[in-house]
Specification:
Blueprint (H helix, E strand, L loop, with lengths): L4 H13 L10 H41 L4 E7 L2 E6 L1 E5 L3 E5 L9 E4 L2 E6 L2 E5 L18 E2 L4 H26 L12 H16 L5 H21 L11 H17 L3 H8 L6 H47 L2 H41 L4 H4 L1
Antiparallel strand pairs: 1-2, 3-4, 3-8, 5-6, 6-7
Helix pairs in contact: 2-8, 3-5, 4-5, 4-9, 5-9, 6-8, 6-9, 8-9
């Protein structure tokens, strides 16, 4: 008997359609167990990358936190769990001077002993403790006593290096002037146009030709000091000096002291008893003007600190994204953004030195500005 093709195709289609209803299919219990197992496997598969990403993010935040902090040792990089670098001297005042190497701390993992006293390094702060290194209080704010820390930290060492570099550069430039009859020579001649620019475009216009010379040494020092420190901060050495608010506070205080010590009576007269202003307004404006005396150095401090600190955070965060994405597209974008930000930071390093110097010159100029009789009349 011959069976036509059309009924045969129909029978096969019906068998295939009803195939899941026969014994080949899983029982409801087996199906539930299989679904549960798949869900567990999927959850574990999803949880593992999530935990790994969280761990990487925490590690990146820790690296960024240590990068922007000052350090009691000079670690260049870490290789297979070992810190490559060199130790720095620890100088503490705790009922006497204690002097030892930061190697005793083993990067914060060990307790250092000095003359019967025990100290521990926690988040780059030194606390007095016992032989077992016990810290009271919470993790971020221990309540242990802190000795007076006079150590040569990474930031202090960098400041010393920059000071010596400036000393040798500009003493050689000054000697070449005296030796060659006012013509510069040597490596220091590269900075001669900048020195002339600070004199002609910053000091003289803002202070005046009569008084600018007594401020030139400070203006040149502060410009090159901030500029060199900013450039050192862009190297892979993990240096962040001008991003430390204590340093910017010190620089602003020096400008504040020079401004107010060298100020003439006209300056103070315009602060406490402004000429040509009605008496009630003088009483109102005097405290406001006095407050401005302290706001000016405060703005110097915050501007320099915030710009440099933010630059370090943004750059380190972009570099950290490479370890989070772990693919060619995300890592390439992070690299290009990091390169672009690094290029901008070179400009910012020079710009912040210029702004600090310019504003200092403005403050000096207002302090020595002489009274004009025409304006008084």
């Amino acid at each position: 008997m011959v069976i036509s093709h059309k009924p045969l195709k129909l029978i096969i289609a019906i068998l295939i359609a009803f195939l899941p209803t026969f014994g080949f299919s899983n029982t409801p219990i087996d199906t539930a167990q299989s679904s549960t197992e798949k869900a567990v496997v999927a959850h574990e598969t999803e949880a593992k990358p999530t935990d790994e990403k969280s761990e990487v993010k925490a590690k990146i935040l820790e690296v960024i936190g240590h990068h922007v902090l000052d350090g009691h040792d000079f670690s260049l990089f870490e290789y297979e769990g070992e810190h490559i670098g060199f130790s720095l001297p620890i100088i503490l005042w705790d009922n006497g001077v204690h002097f030892f190497s930061s190697e005793k701390f083993h990067h914060g993992e060990s307790v250092a002993e000095s003359n019967g006293n025990y100290y521990v390094l926690h988040h780059e702060k030194i606390y007095k403790t016992d032989a077992s290194g016990t810290l009271t209080g919470d993790e971020h704010h221990p309540t242990n006593l802190q000795p007076v820390d006079l150590s040569i930290t990474k930031g202090v060492l960098t400041i010393m290096i920059v000071a010596l570099l400036m000393f040798f550069l500009f003493t050689s430039l000054a000697r070449s002037y005296a030796k060659n009859g006012g013509i510069s020579s040597g490596f220091g001649r590269l900075f001669e146009p900048i020195v002339i620019y600070i004199r002609d475009e910053i000091a003289i216009p803002n202070i005046g030709e009569k008084h600018y010379k007594k401020y030139m040494s400070y203006l040149l020092t502060i410009f090159f000091f901030i500029w060199f420190l900013n450039i050192f901060g862009l190297t892979p050495l993990g240096i962040n000096v001008t991003g430390n608010i204590a340093i910017t506070f010190g620089l602003a205080v020096v400008t504040f002291i020079i401004t107010n010590i060298t100020a003439n009576k006209n300056y103070w007269g315009h602060i406490f008893w402004m000429p040509g202003v009605p008496l009630p307004m003088k009483i109102i404006l005097a405290p406001i003007e006095l407050l401005g005396v302290f706001i000016k150095p405060f703005s110097l401090m915050i501007r320099l600190y915030a710009n440099i600190f933010a630059g370090h955070i943004v750059l380190m965060s972009l570099i950290g994204l490479m370890f989070i994405f772990k693919n060619w597209l995300g890592s390439s974008l992070s690299f290009m953004l990091s390169f672009a930000i690094s290029t901008i930071e070179i400009l910012v390093a020079l710009l912040q030195a210029y702004i600090f110097t310019m504003l200092s010159a403005l403050y000096f100029g207002s302090a020595v500005e002489e009274h004009h009789h025409e304006e008084a009349h």
